[in-house]
Amino acid sequence: MVLNFLQPCFDIDECTNDPCVALATCVNLPGTFECPCNSGYEGDGEVECTDIDECALDYCDTNASCINTIGSVECFCNAGYAGNGTYCENVNECEQDSACQEFATCFDNIGSFYCTCDAGYRLHTAQVGAADEDVVDLCVEIVDCEVKLYKSPYKRLIGKIFRRKIEETITLGPRILSDKHGKL
Q: Could you report the per-residue pLDDT of 158-176, keeping only the tens digit for each?
C-alpha cells in the first residue's frame, strides 16, 4: 500500500450529526467536538444539561428577591432599595417630597424610613373612606383649650371635664380642626 502524503487531510465536522442534547451547542474542533451547555445550564452536553439554580449561588444582591427561571434568573430589589437586582442600594425616601406629610420630619434608615410630628403637633389617625384600610396618619396642631368659668364654685372641676370632652370629640376636616358642633 502506498501512502500519498501530498493529499490534504480534512476535518470531519461531527456537529452535522447533532451529537449534543437540545440545551447544548455543538462546537467542532480539529479531530473532535465539544458540547458546552447553554448559559444557565450545566452538564456534559452530550447526555444532559440541567438548569442551574442561580438563587442557590447567591446570584442576586442580599437586599433582593431571587426567582430562578428556566435557564436564567430574575432579581428584584426589595422595597426601600433600588438597583438592577444584582446590586441594590438603600433609597433615601426622605429626599422625596411626598415621604412625610406636612408638619412632620422624615428620618431615613436602611431599607425604610419613618416620620415624626414636629414640635407643637401630634399624630392623629383619620378615617378617610368607608373601608377599614382607608386610614391615614396626620400631624395635627396641638390645641390647648381652656375654659374660664367665673362665679362657679366648680370652675376647676367643670373646666377639666370640658377640656377632656373637647379632646375626645375633635375630628379632622380638610386641614381644619373642629368640634362636633363645627367650632373650636
A: 444 444 444 443 433 333 3
- Please give the pLDDT value at position 98: 77
The full set of domains in the chain, from first to last, is 14-51 (2.10.25.10), 54-90 (2.10.25), 144-184 (no CATH)
- Residue 51's pLDDT is what? 94
Cell of 18: 447533532
Residue written as grid cell 364654685: 153
- Percent of the chain as helix, strand, coil, to the nearest 5: 15, 35, 50
| 3-state helix/strand/coil string of 17-48 | HCCCCCCECCEEECCEEECCECCCEEECCCCC
> What values do phi and psi take at 65, rounded to 5?
-95, 140
